[in-house]
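Example 4.3 (complexes with small molecules)
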Amino acid sequence: MRRPFIAGNWKMNLDRAAAVALAQRLAKEAESVEGVDLAVCPPSVYLDAVARAVAGSNVAVGAQNMYHEPKGAYTGEIGAAMLADVGCRYVILGHSERRHILGESDTDINKKVLAALEAALTPIICVGELIEQRRAGATMDVIASQFAGSLAGLSTEQIAQVVIAYEPVWAIGTGEVATPDQAEKVHLGLRKIMQVRYNEQVAQAIRIQYGGSVEPENAADLLGQPNIDGALVGGASLKAESFMGIIAALAK
Ligand code: PEP
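Answer. The structure with phosphoenolpyruvate bound is encoded below.
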């Protein structure tokens, strides 16, 4: 049985006071939440403060990105061990905004995934197709190629440590959510890819989140699908009511 996992990607939003206030409120409201893993991923400059705000609670902290080298002359970059040092348990890697706006390739993402695992961080690895690719019927080819490239060289032990997030690019921040059926098909396809490359046990054990305009109103239908194990939430994670509303939808 896979334990659901709901994570909030705050992207480049909030200031320090707002980030800490939101984290404190979520930590308090999540006190009675059971049977689900929760995380928030603030901007990197607020990681330390947010980690302190949620310390000892049900809410873990993740980063939105990292560099693959552990240390050295890489101005502006942050290594995996540094993230772990300020209290991160997770790191989002290969988010579509990093792939399509910042130009990250599968090879870049793969190096980061391996470095994150080395530092005992759990990578949340994002894959997802563009609208033109979906219209061209290429969704599963794109997902398979991103999976192969971003997770190249991972052993069976290493794959067991990752979380995958299926995030159709056309659904991110657009309000245009994938239907539960569309998302479920891709999640099932991802399990098939893992079964072929690894084995059935791996395919059944890995958690696959859905991301793309998840809101309290559509969360129950998405999270109710057998192969959807949680959500990576952008916009709706910036308000305690909507993030908690998505968590509450798990129980429906
Ligand atoms: C995201 O950024 O990962 C995301 C899913 O954003 P939103 O929920 O706003 O579509």
